Amino acid sequence: MEQDVLVRPEPITERARQRFAYFIAFVAAIGGFLFGYDLVIISGAQIFLRDYFHLANNPKAYGFAVSCAMIGCMMGPIGGAYLCDKLGRKAVLLIASLLFVVGAVGTALPRDIITFDIFRIIGGVGVGFASLASPMYIAEVAPAKKRGALGLMYQLAVCVGCTLAVIVAWIMAKTLPDSVSWRWMFISIIVPIIAFVLMIWRAPQSPRWLAEKDRSDEALDVLTKINGPEVAKEVLDEINTSLKEEPGSLRELLQPGVKIALLTGILLALFNNLTGWTGVGYYLPTIFQMAGYSKASDAIGVSLIPNIAGVILTIVAIKLVDRVGRRPLWIVTSAAMFFMLLLMGLVFQLHVKGPVVILMTLLILAPHSIGLGGLPWLMMSELFPTRIRAWAVSITTTVIWFAG
């Protein structure tokens, strides 16, 4: 008679744990990809929108159409904070994807600019949700030693999304009639959204959110897959201890230690947008048209250069952040941005055109991509205790969009 053999599950290897952590961070970072794609696709479409809706002589309506998604971006984090606490970070990312779809379809089909603006704002709410939930989710699942690098995966995904949006816009501008090319630009985001939804279903909830909801067994299981059994128990004990010590009310935001953290987060958010690149990035094709690349497809094609450079420079930031540290990286890139903006102002003052303008956009992009662009998203998710993190990050994220 054969005896039953007890088969013990093989322990998860270190490499498998790293793959699992990177998978979660990658999936969450796709929220940043959608954020970058959705916001930057307007840069490729803006020239055609201006002509289709006859906005050349109405700069206010044109400027509002280009930037109105920011209204939704500012609204998203406020409602997103409640949903992050109630439903979890993963659920909020799924809701964001639905809003992206509604916004994409709505902006692809309108016959008047008001309808376009309304659906653009709806898509902006999805961006606001993603910009809140994605960095927070990554920070809460990443192992401590890899938190900086994994946290900046969000910024890398934003850059990749921006770059792909420009590539898609350029191809469509080259191959489709001007009257419909912009419509296909907006609808194209549905393809990565489908991929995102399929992957996010496989990702777990944040272990910190699970622990907060008294689902410690599930939290321990996720932490074990990321850190191994011994470290997982230590991390879960730390989470449970912090949850017991934190009252979890909004009043805690005004307590001495947390108040300083909140002020720091707000300043980081302001510097993220007020340091120069945001205003340049949104209007790259228009800037390049002014610099001598008058054909729309040429202006869009040239704007690929800084977008691809942004991806490369963000990879540099990922390599540096855990080695150099947040503070030194911030100080160096802030000083560099100061001098680059002075040079850019001089170029515009002297009405310089051609490749010099491209070079100046790259010089402004470098300090933004290496430090000022990604560090705020990373650090804002690291500053606050678990129970009030969603509300605190919602405030700082709203400030980012308000400053933009």
Describe the model.
The protein is mostly helical. Helix content is 81%, strand content 0%. The protein has 20 helices and no strands. The N terminus is likely disordered.
Features:
single chain, mainly alpha, 81% helix
Q: Give the strand tally.
A: 0
Form type:
globular
| Largest pleated sheet | none
Query: Strand pairing plus helix content: what structural class?
Result: mainly alpha
- Summed up, the helix count is 20
Strand content: under 5%
Amount of helix: over 70%
Contiguous low-pLDDT stretches (5 residues minimum) are 1-10
Distance between the termini: 74 Å
Helix/strand order, N-terminal first? HHHHHHHHHHHHHHHHHHHH
Summarize model confidence as the mean pLDDT: 81
Question: Rg, please?
Answer: 22 Å
List the helices and strands and how they pair.
Elements: H1 14-52, H2 59-67, H3 69-87, H4 89-108, H5 113-141, H6 147-175, H7 178-187, H8 190-200, H9 207-212, H10 216-227, H11 229-245, H12 256-274, H13 277-282, H14 284-290, H15 296-302, H16 304-324, H17 326-349, H18 355-372, H19 375-380, H20 386-403
Helix pairs in contact: 1-4, 1-5, 1-6, 1-7, 1-8, 1-10, 3-4, 3-5, 3-20, 4-5, 4-7, 4-8, 5-6, 5-20, 6-7, 6-15, 6-16, 10-11, 12-20, 14-15, 16-17, 16-18, 17-18
